[in-house]
Amino acid sequence: MILIAAATTAFVVRRFASHALRRSPAWDCGFPDASPATQYTAGSFAQPIRRVFGSVVFRAREHVTLPKPGDTSVARLRVDLHDTIWEALYLPIIRGVDAMADRLNRLQFLTIRTYLTLVFSALVLLLIIVGTWR
Amino acid sequence: MIREWLTQLGQAALVLGLAPLLSGVTRKIRARLLRRQGPSIIQPYRDLLKLIRKETVIAENASWLFRAAPYVVFGTTWVAAALVPTFATGLPLSASADLIVIVALLGTARFLLALAGLDVGTSFGGIGSSREMMFASLAEPAMLMAVFTLSLFAGSTELSSISAYMLGPHAGLSISLALALVALVIVSLGENARIPVDNPATHLELTMVHEAMILEYSGRHLAVIEAAASLKLLLYLSLIACVFIPWGTAPSTDGTVAYAIGLGAYAVKLAGLGFLLVVFETAIAKMRVFRVPEFLGVALMLGLLGTIMLFVSRISR
Question: Residues of chain A whose C-beta is under 8 A from some C-beta in B?
Fold first, then answer.
């Protein structure tokens, strides 16, 4: 339906509208040269959302270190942001997988005897399982 | 069967034909309230015709997306507007006239418009798209919350059923319903770039949102986008009319007389809602951009409250 509506519009506009088309430079206000520095980046695009949801969703906290008058050390402003979904959902999974991998990693540095024992005991275990299954 | 489809097509044509008139009427009332003469109410039609006849200027670095987006935006908005029951309910497409579908269609249109705004790479398109997305991140959940409240009442998210329920004997005054109405009104103000959120008549650079996104458009593309914008206003007003003032809407089984009454009632409802909208607009000032999220957040909270209160009262009963 959307296709039909959009195609009808395009057709009607093509049929009845002026066909004159001109390419020209983009409007120059705020676009003096096409350098990447003047353009919107992902960070600048997300800035309003970050600002609106910052204190709630991202748990943003500002830490301001203002030196006393006469103190010549630098003033600092640090903003801490948290990616809530990442920290609540993915980090536990990642930590779990990491811990498991660490434990299992020990299996890679055993002697040939231990491997043979493991293979043999696995075989015995499987045979016992199959035997009791029947 | 054929008659019903003709009615559906008629409705699609009606919303398309009526949308610029609605914009014209609201502009006229607004001008009169400000003690200005104002342009004629058919001025939007003239504007559209003028834009269509004019030469289109496209930026050198614009891609195909920039040229395709207006048509898709218009197509999705038109379909969404044609789905909302205006003068008759129970039309052939009303099975798909689901509120969530309408929200999704409008979301698609918004997404494409934001992409088109970013396409050329000017800072204005970027700022418009970025702000629009910020508003959307609050307005869309608020709209969905209002939808959920309504669907909890009617047991369906289908607009025809909700409208029928509101006409039925079980509907009464309810706090949740009032909260949903207020949420819906706030969302429609935000979505249509009306005054507390955005000024549709301005090109004041630092505050514009919708106008910033479409700044690079001209000629026939701009005409299509303007038509889509007025369709969207009509859509929201019809939505509020269809759900909260459903009287007079004709069921599809009735005859021509019922349709005529439905049409008349629809015109009266639209005019009334348009008048209220303009009075509200002239009474308050535009907000700073970063106060808008609080305004839309109120809508979200109200929608949430409405749903939760309804849920709790249903359970405790």
Answer: 1-3, 5-7, 9-10, 13, 16-18, 20-27, 29-31, 34, 38-40, 44-49, 51-53
